[in-house]
Write a structure and sequence with these properties.
This protein is α/β, with parallel strands linked by helices and 588 residues long. It has two domains: 309 residues, ABC transporter transmembrane region fold, CATH 1.20.1560; 237 residues, P-loop containing nucleotide triphosphate hydrolases (Rossmann fold). It contains 19 helices and ten strands. The strands form two sheets. The protein has a six-stranded mixed β-sheet with strand order 6-7-8-3-9-10, sandwiched between helices. It has a four-stranded antiparallel β-sheet with strand order 2-1-4-5, with helices on one face. Strand 9 and strand 10 form a beta hairpin. Helix 2 runs antiparallel to helix 10, helix 7 packs antiparallel against helix 9 and helix 14 packs across helix 16. The chain is elongated. The structure holds adenosine-5'-triphosphate. Adenosine-5'-triphosphate binds next to helix 11.
């Protein structure tokens, strides 16, 4: 059951939960007490010197009333204090639990395999981390307290009823099984409806998120109207899912109200007749009539609580589902944390993406000595970036093995591996922060001078200094306030600041102009001297200096050698070179 899983998750907060529960129960007891005092007061004014209080030793009716007044004051004070305490404690608890759920789910998502992200939309994940966690918080905020207080009322008021009139107690309690049965019936009906609501909320968030990310494309294709209609349709489905749930939840309260009315009428009329016949004291009748309200009325809140409960559990199921997604690429304490020199060996490596029929790379044999600069070239889709993803251990090779410094990659601790590879990927991502912060991300221990040096090596220092705010310039979301070439140079500086033994540049300078690229090449000659560099580029002028160039085609390496050797071979590389240098025209 989802609730138990949520409670198991909240284990660490047991003490606070116990304290909060105690406060809820005490508050409810104080809440019920004034009704009993009213009954006793009626008894005092009617019976005077023969009243119940008089039997306790206070004979003077005035004094009896003063005592009752003082008790009422103390009870109200106690009720207020414990209301403050239960509200504070339940809310704090709800905050802590939602915080733990959110941070744990975020942390779990971060560690998920790359394959997981291919099937997910960022909007859906955001909806789980935000909306679903908030929904759960809303239930924890008030739901647990409501349930506890209803139970307290039933036990406390029930006891008073049975003491005063067992016959009326039975009548007043008649609606309760009906209400509980109704609540379970409602829960069964509402559960699938709320699951649908949460799933539609995720779909809607995903659609909005995608559109905002792709706003430039929407504008350039003047698709605003079309996209508005699409979002309208999804939002409409969300509304309809909610309406179906609302219909069920709205029907619950009136049904409970009618059940409560039956119990109330029974006490009201039958208790009244008993009082007229002298079988029940007037004060006791007063207490019972007021207490019937106290007993049954909280059940009305059960509808709201059940509603919150269903919404909360639908959200909890989504969060727990996410937390239960297995992580296959992970490290253990046994994995090696070694200092890499930069030697990389692919041995007969084959890899097929999940749900794909054809391998993206096959029979790959590459041996890169530490300190070498190698290049991967070839048609788009030939498998170059896939080799890098295997090197980063975003995916695991299906066949063959990949070794670094002679150690099989799967035996190296993930943090040790990734922290020693500087990757500037095709899809450069900058954080919505200043240029300085983005470069500094590469090595948080680096000082200011090191950041400037990295920027100089990446040919970024010059343009950054020309910006009004220099290194403090905000880059905008995903670097939108900068040009493509500027973003690439900042990403390069970030990777250089990391100073890794292996540097991977996957189309890292594709957006910079030829002149800047030539300058970057020059810096790379120096940078590459004491590390392994893997360069992927379509522009072959970028790779001419590489120690070895691997030409890929449809997942295979079809040629390898230095620039001169490959030209002499007169194979694929030579024809690509001829096209790029304008010696021959590219095929139509
Ligand atoms: N996440 C993925 N899921 C399924 N197939 C993928 C995925 N990523 C890449 N592929 C497929 O794997 C093959 C190799 O892709 P890869 O990105 O390695 O090519 P590439 O040589 O780097 O191309 P480009 O020069 O365009 O960057 C392609 O057919 C591509 O469609």
């Amino acid at each position: 059951m989802t609730l138990f899983k949520v409670l198991a998750y909240a284990k660490g907060f047991k003490r606070q939960a116990m304290w909060a529960s105690t406060c809820s129960v005490v508050n409810k007891l104080f809440d019920i007490a004034p009704e009993i005092l009213i009954g006793i007061a009626i008894d005092v004014v009617i019976q005077q010197e023969d009243s119940f209080v008089a039997q306790l030793g206070i004979v003077e009716p005035k004094n009896q009333l003063f005592l009752l007044g003082l008790l009422t004051f103390l009870i109200w004070l106690g009720e207020s204090v414990f209301q403050f305490l239960y509200l504070k404690n339940w809310r704090e608890l709800a905050q802590k639990i939602q915080h733990r759920f959110r941070v744990d789910s975020y942390s779990h998502i971060q560690n998920m395999d790359m394959a997981f992200f291919e099937d997910q939309s960022s909007g859906r994940l955001t909806a789980i981390l935000n909306d679903d966690v908030n929904q759960l918080e809303r239930f924890l905020d008030v739901g647990a307290n409501d349930i506890l207080q209803v139970l307290t009322s039933v036990v406390a008021v029930g006891s008073v009823f049975f003491i005063l009139s067992p016959k009326l107690a039975l009548l007043a309690f008649t609606p309760i099984p009906l209400i509980i049965f109704g609540a379970f019936f409602f829960q069964r009906k509402a559960e699938p409806l709320y699951t649908k609501v949460r799933s539609m909320a995720g779909k809607l968030a995903a659609a909005i998120n995608t559109n905002i990310t792709g706003i430039a494309t929407i504008k350039s294709y003047t698709k605003e109207q079309h996209e508005r209609q699409r979002i309208h349709a999804i939002s409409d489905q969300y509304v309809q899912a909610n309406q179906a749930a609302i219909k069920v939840s709205a029907a619950f309260t009136p049904v409970i109200r009618m059940a409560i009315l039956m119990g109330f009428l029974a006490t009201f009329v039958i208790g009244g007749l008993d009082t007229l016949n002298g079988n029940l004291a007037v004060g006791a009748y007063g207490v019972l009539v007021f207490l019937t309200q106290r007993l049954l009325w909280p059940f009305k809140n059960l509808a709201v609580t059940m509603d919150l409960y269903e919404r909360g559990m639908a959200s909890a199921r989504r969060i727990l589902n996410l937390l239960n997604q297995p992580i296959t690429i992970r490290s253990s304490d046994h994995d090696k944390r070694i200092q890499l020199s930069g030697e990389i060996q692919f041995n007969q490596v084959q890899f097929t993406y999940p749900n794909q029929a054809k391998p993206a790379v096959d029979a790959i044999n590459i041996h890169i000595q530490a300190g070498q600069t190698v290049a991967l070239v070839g048609q788009t889709g030939s498998g170059k970036s896939t080799l890098i993803k295997l090197l980063m251990r975003y995916y695991r090779a299906d066949q063959g093995n990949l070794c670094l410094d002679g150690h099989e990659i799967n035996t190296i601790h993930l943090n040790a591996l990734r922290s020693q590879i500087g990757l500037v990927s095709q899809t450069t991502f900058l954080f919505n922060d200043s240029i300085f912060a983005n470069i500094h991300y590469g090595n948080p221990d680096a000082d200011e001078q090191a950041v400037y040096r990295a920027a100089q090596q990446a040919e970024a220092h010059g343009f950054i200094n020309q910006l009004k705010d220099g290194y403090n310039t905000p880059v905008g979301e995903q670097g939108t306030k900068l040009s493509g070439g500027q973003v690439q140079r900042i990403a390069l500086a970030r990777a250089l600041l990391k100073n890794p033994p292996i540097l991977v540049l996957d189309e890292a300078t594709s957006a910079v102009d030829n002149e800047t690229e030539a300058a970057i090449q020059k810096s790379l000659l120096t940078i590459g001297r004491d590390r392994t560099v893997i360069v992927i580029a379509h522009r072959l002028s970028t790779v001419v200096n590489a120690d070895c160039i691997y030409v890929m085609d449809q997942g295979h390496i079809i040629e390898s050698g230095s620039h001169t050797e490959l030209l002499e071979k007169k194979g694929r590389y030579q024809s690509l070179w001829a096209i790029q240098t304008g010696q021959i025209k590219s095929p139509e």
